[in-house]
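Lab notebook, bench 4. Still working through the backlog of constructs that have no structural model yet. Next entry is a single chain of 219 residues. Request: give me the C-alpha cells for it.
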Amino acid sequence: MTPADPLSEHLALADWRRRVHAMYAALRADERPGPMRAVAFRAAKDRLVAEHPSSPVPTTVRRDFRGLAYWRHADDLILRATLEPDPGAPAIGVPRSGEGLGIPFRRIGWVSFRVGDTACRLSVFWLEEYAGGIFIPFRDGTSGSTSYGGGRYLWDSAKGADLGTTDDGKLVLDFNYAYHPSCVFDPRWSCPLAPQENWLDVPIQAGERLDRAAGEEAA
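Model written out:
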C-alpha cells in the first residue's frame, strides 16, 4: 500500500482499527497479573505505532521512534465503577483539537471512584454519530506538564479502546491504559478533548506520558 494512494490510506486505516480492536480483545482475555498484561499490551502497541502505515507518528520521524513513554504500572489505579445513568442529558459538542465544530456526544451517565483519598467523578459519553461508542476522556493533575494538556482517553470503544465490564456490570477503569489522542503526535489529526466536566484535580500517574523521566519505563 502506497501512502500517496487515497484508497490505500483508507484500507490501511481500516486495518489499523482492526488491529486496535484485536489488541484490546487480547487484553480483556489476558488473565496474568496486571504488570505482565501491561508489558504485553505496550509492546504490541509500540510495534503497531512504529510499523503501521496509519500510525499517528509522522513518517519523517518514525524511524527514530523508540516506543511510547509510560508511568510504571499502578495496581491502585485499576478500578471498577458502576455506571450511574443520566437519561435526560442533552447532546453536547465535545471540543476538538483542530478546526471545526465540536464532535457530537451525549452524556449517558457518570462513574464515581477514588484516587487515594480524593473522590472523583467522570462523565461517560456516547458518540452520537454512526455506530456509536462509549467515550471517557479526562484531564488530570499531570495535564500540561507530564501528559498532554488536552487530556487523555480511558475508553473510546468506537475505535476499539474497550476495557470491558465485570460480571456484575461495572465498567473497568484501568488508568494504566490511559492514552494520548493522535493529535499529540501530529497536528493533522483533529481529536476530541476532555470537556471541563471531566477535569480531575488529582494527578493520574499511570498510562501514557509525554516523555521518559529517569527511572520510568518505556514499555
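Notes after review: Confidence is low (pLDDT under 50) at residues 213-219. Residues 6-209 form one domain. Flag for follow-up if needed.
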